[in-house]
Amino acid sequence: MNHAKTLPQARRVTNPARGVSAWCLYDWANSPFPTVVVTFVFSAYFVQAIAADEISGTALWGITMSASAFVVALLSPVLGALADAGGRRKPWLLVFTVGCIIASALLWFAKPEARAVAVTLACVAIGNVFFELCMVFYNAMLADIVPRDRLGRVSGWGWGIGYFGGLTCLIVALFALVQADPPPFGLDRLAAEHVRATGPLVALWFAAFAWPLFLFTPDRPGSGLPKRTVAREGLRRLYETIRDIGQYRTIVHFLLARMLFIDGLNTVFAMGGVFAAGTFGMGVAQVIQFGIALNVTAGLGAIGFGWVDDWIGARRTLYISLSCLAVAGGALISVESHAWFWFWGMVLGIFVGPVQAASRSMMARLAPAHLETEMFGLYALSGKVTAFFGPATVAWVTVLTESQRLGMATVLIFICAGLGLLYLLPQHAED
Question: Is the pTM here over 0.70, yes or no?
Fold first, then answer.
């Protein structure tokens, strides 16, 4: 292999406080998309007001999330390799940020009628693809802006701030739009404009808080190579990485484990609002309230466990978090009362953030400096290559059994399988 010779790139830790703060703020900026659009507001709105019925709505939503995940799985390693060959990450991040903003704004046209099914699902799918591709380049910047012994806490800070960003946007959506009586700006409640307006709200939020990263967070210098050379070099490097993947056995082992447990976690996010609306009869406002409470516990968990990550290591943090997540998830889909649903939802939230933050910090520790974006492309691949299985399995089992509980129970299989594979990770692996 000659990756390092192609683009010599040492790990550069600059650690300016303003740049780190701007990096964390980007998580605040983008989190309303998965929180408001994918998980809580638009998922419930689609099932209850646009789709023909809850069962078909659940199936269509699950299939859409699966399709977008498949596209991300195909594109992320290639784009990551191209970015490493070109050096800079911000231009890629800017393109996908703008794309996600536009897709979110277009959700205004998701009217409560059958003919809006296609446009709604198209906007959600495209927005989700752009959002996930943003995260490839965003995550890869972490190891260049903080020293190794602070990766866990800064990753946790980013996830925690992101959860509180999603929380704050949900509060705005709930009280300023969904529950406002009368709705502001003359919005027509009968046409669901007070709910549809949450799409443009997410777009404005993203645009308003993302820009500091592009101004203040340092980027790697460009390689100076022509675009054709960058494309050729990036694809060659990706081919060599895949060809010599045996040299990265620890990374491959970790990514296989993550592929399983993150599939279960992503399915909870994608289908959680649908489950709350269908099984417990929660309206959009109630789903938002649950989402607000869930984001509080998730944000606190991510921030708190960030210190634990730097103390005991990312791998052990994942052991603890995934074990507790499996217990809380099993209880959550078994309970009958709203009170217990809320209780176990809050417990589950505490361990959701640490799983995501510790996974990112572990990857930042394992990835070779000259292949960081490419490795985070493979990281995204591990989170998406089988991601269609999770939502699709929930959708299929829900349809076959006519039970959302049995459908959602399938996520536990993915979480436990990933945890089991993680336990087999070599003990000498650096985390």
Answer: yes
